[in-house]
Amino acid sequence: DKVRSFDDDVLAFGEADALKISSSTGVKRRYVAPPGVCTSDLCFTSAKQVLQDLRWAPDSIDVLIFVSQTPDYVIPATACSLHQRLGLAKQCAAFDLNLGCSGYVYGLWVAASLLSAGSYSRALLLVGDTISRLASLQDRSVAPLFGDAGTATAIERTASAAPMYFELGTDGAGWRHLIVPAGGFRKPRSAETAVRV
């Protein structure tokens, strides 16, 4: 229920910049997860609702894919803890994909590819992020754009389904422009890097 609004952006960036950002992106407000709520919690709630709405038994899910750049831990894969929380069967494959903006499309492509191969019938695609944990409120290139969310998409293979087509590509040249430089193994987190600016 916590919302960052246009008024918050005015306080952070000034009215002229806030108007410029809002008019060019269309973003007027973002929802922010409260302390202690992770992406997995948001996706779990979405998944429970989807399974209930479709009346799918948890043990009927063959594949669980969790796509996020804000996992619960470095290891294990967050999909494993979600697998347990959702009560999925041990035969269910569960894994993470670490992707941001393109994550949903890549996750859907992977799920569709696995189902179309014929080994699996049902997949649960969970995609989300709690970017508010990473983005500085003063970073005008990120803070006014991204909120926190978790989604669930149920995918089922049927003989009558139309084929799904994907065209994917990557331009890795700009990787340095979207980076959290510390916290991984190249530059571990320290007291200095933990200070939010």
Instruction: Report, as a whole number of angstroms, the end-to-end distance.
Output: 25 Å
Q: What class do helices, strands and sheet pairing give?
A: alpha/beta
Amount of helix: 25-40%
Unreliable spans are none
What composes the largest sheet? 4 strands, mixed
Portion of residues in beta strands equals 15-25%
SSE order in H/E notation? Answer: EHHEHEHEHEE
Computed over alpha carbons, the radius of gyration is 19 Å
What is the count of helical runs?
5
The overall strand count is 6
Shape: globular
Strand order of the largest sheet: 4-3-5-6
Mean pLDDT: 92
Give a verbal description of the structure.
By secondary structure, the chain is α/β, with parallel strands linked by helices. Helix content is 29%, strand content 18%. The chain has five helices and six strands; from the N terminus they run βααβαβαβαββ. It has helices at 6-13, 15-25, 39-54, 78-86, 103-116, and strands at 2-5, 29-32, 63-67, 93-97, 122-130, 148-156. The protein has a four-stranded mixed sheet with strand order 4-3-5-6, sandwiched between helices. It has a two-stranded antiparallel ribbon with strand order 1-2. Strand 3, helix 4 (78-86) and strand 4 (93-97) form a beta-alpha-beta unit. Helix 1 (6-13) crosses helix 2 (15-25) and helix 3 (39-54) crosses helix 4 (78-86). It starts with a strand and ends in a 41-residue tail after the last strand. The model has no long low-confidence stretch (mean pLDDT 92).
